[in-house]
Amino acid sequence: MPFPTNPALEAAVIAAAEDDLPRLVYADWLDEHGDPARAAFIRVQCALHDKNPADADYPDLIEQRREAFDGLRRRNDLKPKLPAAVGFHDNLYNPDDDSLSRSYYRGFPYLMGEPADVRDEENAADRFRAALPQLLATTTLRGLNFYGSFSRQLHRILLAAECGRLTALSAQSSERGVVDALVRSPMAGSLRWLGLGLLTDSDVAAMAAAELPFLQRWEAHHGFHGSPEAMSRLVSAEWFAGLHRLLCQFPSQNAGSLWSALAEAPDLHTVQVWGWSTAGGLAPLGTAKPFRSLGRLHLHATTPTEADMNGLIRAKFPKLAVLEVTNAGLRNDGLKKLFTADWFPGLRVLELDCDNLGDQGIVALGKSAAAPHLRSLSLGTSKLRPKAFASLARDFPRLTTLEVKAAHTVKMTPAEMAAFTESLSLPRLRHLTLNGWPLGDAGAVALANNPAAANLTRLDLSHADIGAAGVRAILESPHLQRLVYLNLSSSSGGMDALADLGVLPRLAHCWLPDGVSKAVYGKLVSARGNIFVGGPG
To answer: Which residues is 113 bridged to in the sheet?
Structure first.
């Protein structure tokens, strides 16, 4: 059965590509005509458009976005119909990716990419450019995403007058001339979202002199490797003070001028710093002015020095609500130091993907001033023991998302994990991930029998050593009827019961256990219609 479409409403969306109202009108129409999944997708992406993570509804919207993506994983009707000269990367598999690799934006296709066949790059670029007028008239595509050597041809495309209607550019290769082509392009006057690779001194100088009046999001994927003098000119550019989001890498010799300039940006709400591995990169935060609007800080890949920790603790973040520290050498003592920061009690989302955290740090977190208010807690590849799990089960009463991924050397026993799932007392919980922990059948049964699981919409029990009895308990649980997403990969046991539409009736995205036959797989897909099923088969 085809999904409903309304050509008149789609035309209104295309004609007013920067306006959310036609999109929301279309979402209402889809709801009324039998496509609530796509309606939810449009609404949540529009709501998250330039959303400050400090806003009270941000954790809810992030959860809704994951559920909306679950409902669309098997859909193939959302892709735009494109000529061979233009590519489109359909990436509905990662709902948490909101970078310039995201092909859908505000509920509709957004980024067009290089074609599959670029053996003759100059001719391919000419064909791409020739297709722009028709694409702008018939699709919602308003951004360019070039990730390979095709970036060499940007100058052939960006000088087209139609580029003045484009609002995003991602050119992540290190090809020379990309910045020069951009600043001479009509796109410079309309650009809102920019992603670039390595910036040389000449690139930085060109960017510093450029007029980019609407730029709000900048992703400098390979960082700033120019001189401090060039960096100083860049952060003094008029457009820099207008940034809302920044993703970058930078060496410590440029850190002071960068943080000082960011503190002056009145609407800056998100900073993602990747690869701050050079010691001292965070130290200047301790003397920077208050970051008036900063709601989210993501720090990736480093071992923080004492100067880094002191700078972070002394930083003035009056609105910070989201802190993500990933692939970092943060230890228990370092985590406990963060508790002393003035901004720490205001956190609502905390991600700590740090291999060296253990019971001591998590138990202390459960007693911190942030614990009663946290909505989302993610602990990746952690080495936890029963004391930490006991704290997770009881000390975070407002949690709606809990993600605990096991390290390779798990020391918890199935009995200890069953004690955790039985004692779990977080009635607001909606999303639960226990990837890699040895729940076994007993742990799965205890969770299935726990009334505190009644609000769960997403459940990831992959690689959790669950057998047929545990799988059956999950599927038959009276408390898990709201599930939209279920991951039981690397378990054992059949999923035949899911062919009955009365079992987990809302399920839209499921990963099957090992050993499921192609016959069962086909039966499940046939019975469930548009469910996305991953795994064997």
So the answer is: 87, 145
CA nearest neighbour of 458 among 75, 125, 69? 69
What is the DSSP annotation of 7-40? HHHHHHHHHTTT-SHHHHHHHHHHHHTT-HHHHH
For 244-282, the pLDDT digits (tens) are: 999 987 666 778 888 999 999 999 999 998 765 456 788
> Alpha helix (H) ranges present in 424-477?
440-448, 468-476
Cβ-based burial of 72 (10 A; exposed 0-12, middle 13-18, buried ≥19): buried
Tokens in use for 3?
């999904």
Question: pLDDT tens, 452-488?
Answer: 999 999 999 999 999 989 999 999 999 999 999 999 9
- The answer to whether the CB of 106 falls within 8 A of the CB of 19 is no
| Residues sharing a CB contact under 8 Å with residue 201, sequence separation 6 or more, in sequence order | 226, 227, 230
Please report the domains of the chain, with CATH numbers, ordered by start residue.
7-70 (no CATH), 412-537 (3.80.10.10)
How far is Cα 496 from Cα 512, in angstroms, rounded to an integer?
Answer: 11
- Give per-residue burial for 42-52: e unless 16+ CB within 10 Å, then b: bbbbbbbeebb
| Residue owning tokens 């709000």 | 216
Residue pair 235/258 in contact by the 8 Å Cβ criterion: yes
Burial class (CB in 10 A: 0-12, 13-18, 19+), 128: buried
Quote the CA–CA distance of 407 and 383 in Å, as a whole number.
Answer: 6
**Inter-CA distances, 488 with 242, 285, 420, 513, 534, Å:** 45, 43, 19, 5, 10
Residue 60: count other Cβ atoms within 10 Å of its Cβ: 15
Q: Give the list of residues 6+ apart from residue 426 with CB closer than 8 angstroms, or none.
A: 393, 396, 397, 399, 402, 452
Give the angle subtended at the CA of 363 by the CAs of 359 and 365, to the nearest 5°.
Answer: 120
Report the DSSP beta bridge partners of residue 270.
Answer: 245, 296
Place of tokens 């997708």: 41
